[in-house]
Write a structure and sequence with these properties.
The chain is an alpha/beta fold. The protein is 27% helix and 20% strand. It contains 20 helices and 31 strands. Strands 13-15-12-16-17-18-20 form a seven-stranded parallel beta sheet, sandwiched between helices. The chain has a five-stranded mixed beta sheet with strand order 1-25-31-27-29. The two termini are 35 Å apart.
Length: 864
């Protein structure tokens, strides 16, 4: 525990049991309508099926005559109910392999010869109302031969889509091809039945494990076989494989360089292809503000021996730089760029470096000191992945280097904090998580690491409509900060990753002269900082830190003049390789905001070395606040804009690490949940705080941080994650009995009580919280906050964390989580820390253990 007078308190016990989940419901009206008119639906589907089958036969013969590879199936789409959680009926009932779930209820599928026969048979059963044919009404539409334009829009990024017709047969195209593998279903594990004997359930579990192991082996074989087939029959005739990423539950990605004719053939005809990603990675944009001539007298001391290390994944760094050398573990440095020496880890980016500045921001998160003696807060490790241009080489796949770097440093040195200030140039693409972002999510789950990720930067000028620059927006009449709402300003890949901590940028001061004015001003979102929402409506970026500002000319100059300035740029450590001074104000960007947060993560790891990184992420978000000017906003529209721009706000080291007389934080870490299970945590509330006559204003912050195993071919968080979590909290005047009754199944019926929800900012639905248009329960970092009167608080404030079904019905990958809950008396009228501390200790002695024991053999991935 931290060595301070007001450490965070541990929750004193856990009540655990089956969750009371709301689900199910009646058939969609569209499905009922189709069932009531079977002849018409049968005729429509049968005609479509016949046309497709005939076309498929022609295609095979034509390709065979030309010596082209024969696809294993036809690329088709079906349309089903958009809210349907069950897509497996397409495989079990019709023999269609699901390739990917798209927006609007459209499902990309692959149909082989068997699927055509099976579907025809099922349609006859549907017409005659025989057993086994009912699922036909779940298919609302079935494609003709898939329209090329529609397929391209779904599969290709905009860069390839726009250039499609200009790609020549002899061109060389390098891209990442996402290949789906959904033909094998992993069996489910059910809960123990009420009347089932323990030995019967144990025998069932053993049998289930064997079935799961067998199915997993089948899936592994399928992935291996499909990789081999794709490389041999589709890549080799046209080009070469550069790299491959495996390990997702439903897909793999291959980076390949192929001819233009080969690229078009793969995209148009390989039926298991669900996503193509380009190599669009941002290079640093140097602003060129005035240099600082540093003549400071500073004594930089190494970190304490027990300090953790932060791995900086970047362009290398100037390791002998006077300001950072005492913190660099030089023997850990490694260059991951192929065909280069592994010990070539210098920062060659002109003129001031990039990784050197990022490393400096980790070591000096508040400001670069100009004099005095300072002990560095942590060590840094140098992982070079960017070339001298500040770009990722084409033969280094981003998802691949994330695996290489994290496997290397976490495996050899147990590093758990990784700073990644690298982004694509354009906004992230939906509806599927990118390979790059999904790799971060998978590694975070399997290795308990935290990647602190920059949100990405908007360039000063960019004429590409997909990534318009700041000047382009201003010249088009979009003022700051309104243009940040535009799609072109959305966060950039891989910042949409669910399990990283995405950091945007704010300015640190106001600046104005007769001719110049800062665009943002003090503690406002930087004009270059990319904004949210994240993928599927998640809260991104989650937090912000200092990254700088831009200035705009105040005269009537046309076009608008936008540029950086010494007074609006942070003071950073610089590489002196090309003659630049050791420090300077030459760079701005979210690249330098992220490492300031990484430094705080390192402080948390030093205080709690044995806790999960999920707790560090929870405490950072829990400590974050909006600036005072943003807190004072009253309309939902204004608040929603701020949420998109700065997420939960600016982290605070004091709140993240400790408390005071008027603030108390309770934490729990290293917890896990399977679907269908809930856990309840209790915060005892002193009677003095609940005094009826008192008017104490109390701020409550609740933050849930969790991780689950991802898969890529589905749309939406519920099917992207193996298990997804949510949380609920006590209402005003709600009894413990009522809360437990609503949280746990079979906890006893409690009559309805008078209940009033606190004024939470977000809540569980877009229209329930104070901020309309956003909700807290989509991402894996779920924070909410509310201001309440002390008199409205219950005797015990209860929080329930609930596990929901994701894609993993076999319970191989339960969600791991940490929880942080804070209470703060806003105006400090009454101290609460010591009283709650004493009550928590009393609970520790009296609270019973888990209400229901869950079989410890279930939900442990290594067992399968």
């Amino acid at each position: 525990m931290p060595s301070n007078d007001f450490p965070h308190l541990l929750f004193s016990g856990v009540v655990e049991g089956p969750a009371e989940l709301i689900g199910g419901g009646s058939k969609p009206q569209k499905q009922r309508d189709l069932e009531s008119d079977r002849p018409s639906h049968h005729k429509y589907l049968s005609e479509q099926l016949g046309k497709l089958n005939a076309w498929w036969a022609e295609q095979k013969e034509d390709r065979r005559s030309k010596g082209l590879p024969i696809p294993e199936g036809t690329a088709l789409w079906v349309k089903i109910d958009e809210e349907s959680p069950d897509l497996d009926f397409l495989r079990t009932s019709f023999g269609l392999e699901l390739v990917a779930e798209e927006d609007g209820g459209f499902i990309l599928v692959s149909a082989n010869d068997d699927a055509y026969s099976i579907t025809a048979e099922k349609l006859e059963k549907f017409l005659n109302e025989e057993h086994g044919g009912g699922s036909a009404a779940k298919i609302y539409e079935l494609s003709d031969k898939e329209d090329e334009g529609e397929r391209l829009k779904r599969i290709l990024p905009s860069s390839f889509f726009e250039a499609w017709r200009e790609i020549k047969d002899t061109d060389q195209v390098t891209a990442d091809f996402g290949i789906s593998c959904n033909a094998i279903k992993i069996p489910e594990i059910r809960s123990q039945k009420k009347d089932e004997l323990e030995e019967q359930y144990t025998a069932y579990l053993e049998s289930a494990r064997q079935r799961i192991e067998g199915a997993q082996q089948e899936l592994d074989n399928l992935i291996w076989k499909r990789q081999e087939e794709f490389q041999k029959n589709w890549i080799s005739p046209y080009g070469r494989v550069e790299s491959c990423i495996e390990g997702f539950a439903d897909s793999f990605t291959i980076r390949a360089t192929v001819s233009g004719i080969g690229f078009k053939d793969i995209v148009a005809n390989y039926s298991f292809l669900f996503q193509v990603e380009d190599l669009d990675v941002m290079t640093p944009e140097h602003q060129g503000a005035d240099d600082d001539k540093w003549g400071g007298d500073i004594d930089v001391c190494p970190p304490s021996p027990d300090a953790p290390a932060v791995c900086v994944i970047d362009s290398g760094m100037q390791e002998n730089h006077r300001l950072i050398e005492p913190g660099v573990i030089k023997e850990h440095s490694f260059n991951f760029i192929p065909k280069e020496a592994s010990d070539d880890t210098a920062d060659y980016v002109k003129m001031h470096g990039h990784g050197t500045g990022v490393a400096g921001a980790v070591l000096f998160p508040n400001a670069v000191p100009l004099s005095g003696k300072i002990e560095l807060p942590c060590f840094i490790q140098n992982a070079r992945v960017l070339d001298k241009e500040g770009s990722i080489p084409e033969d280094l796949m981003p998802a691949a280097y994330m695996h290489q770097v994290i496997d290397h440093y976490n495996g050899a040195y147990e590093t758990r904090i990784f700073n990644h200030s690298i982004n694509a140039r354009v906004p992230f693409r939906a509806p599927h998580m990118s390979t790059w972002a999904a790799a971060i999510d998978k590694l975070a789950y399997l290795r308990d690491v935290l990647v602190v990720q920059s949100a990405g930067n908007i360039k000063i000028q960019d004429s590409n409509p997909l990534s318009w620059g700041i000047k382009n927006h201003l010249q088009s009449g979009r003022a700051y900060p309104s243009y940040l709402e535009e799609p072109s300003c959305r966060i950039a890949n891989p910042a949409q990753s669910f399990q990283c901590l995405t950091v945007g940028s704010i300015s640190h001061s106001s600046f104005e002269t007769p001719n110049l004015k800062a665009l943002a001003g003090d503690q406002c979102v930087s004009p270059f900082s990319r904004t949210g929402k994240g993928i599927w409506g998640s809260i991104k970026p989650e937090v912000v830190e200092l990254g700088g500002d831009l200035v705009v000319s105040c005269d009537e100059t046309n076009p608008v003049q936008v540029f950086s300035h010494k007074e609006t740029s942070p003071l950073l450590v610089q590489s002196t390789l090309y003659g630049a001074p050791a420090i300077g104000r030459n760079e701005i960007g979210t690249s330098y905001a992220a490492p300031r947060v990484s430094s705080l993560v390192a402080q948390l790891q030093k205080e709690w070395p044995d806790e999960s990184t999920l707790l560090y992420r929870a405490l950072i978000a829990n400590s974050a606040r909006w600036p005072d000017w943003a807190e004072s906003l009253e309309t939902s529209e204004e608040r929603l804009s701020i949420l998109k721009q700065i997420g939960y706000g600016i982290p605070d080291a004091t709140r993240a690490l400790s408390n005071d007389d008027f603030r108390v934080t309770l934490i729990v870490s290293n917890e896990s949940l399977c679907a269908g299970i809930a856990k309840m945590f209790e915060v005892p509330i002193p009677e003095s705080l609940r005094a009826v006559a008192a008017e104490y204003d109390v701020r409550i912050d609740v933050t849930l941080s969790y991780a689950a195993m991802p898969r890529r071919t589905r749309r939406g968080h519920k099917q992207y994650l193996s298990t997804h979590l949510s949380w609920k909290a006590s209402c005003a005047g709600e009894s413990e009995a009522k809360f437990r009754s609503d949280l746990f199944k079979d906890d006893g019926s409690v009559p309805d009580e008078s209940r009033r929800y606190f004024d939470w900012m977000l809540r569980e639905a877009d229209d329930h919280g104070e901020i309309k248009g956003a909700r807290r329960n989509i991402g894996t970092l779920q924070k909410d906050w509310a201001y309440v009167k002390g008199r409205d608080l219950p005797d015990s404030f209860l929080i329930g964390v609930i596990g929901h079904k994701g894609w993993d019905h076999s319970l191989q990958y339960p969600a791991r989580f940490a929880l942080a809950v804070s209470f703060e008396v806003v105006n400090q009228e009454i101290p609460i820390y010591e009283e709650i501390q004493a009550m928590v200790e009393e609970l520790r002695l009296t609270l019973p253990g888990a209400q229901i024991q869950i079989d410890s053999s279930i939900g442990q991935g290594e067992l399968f």
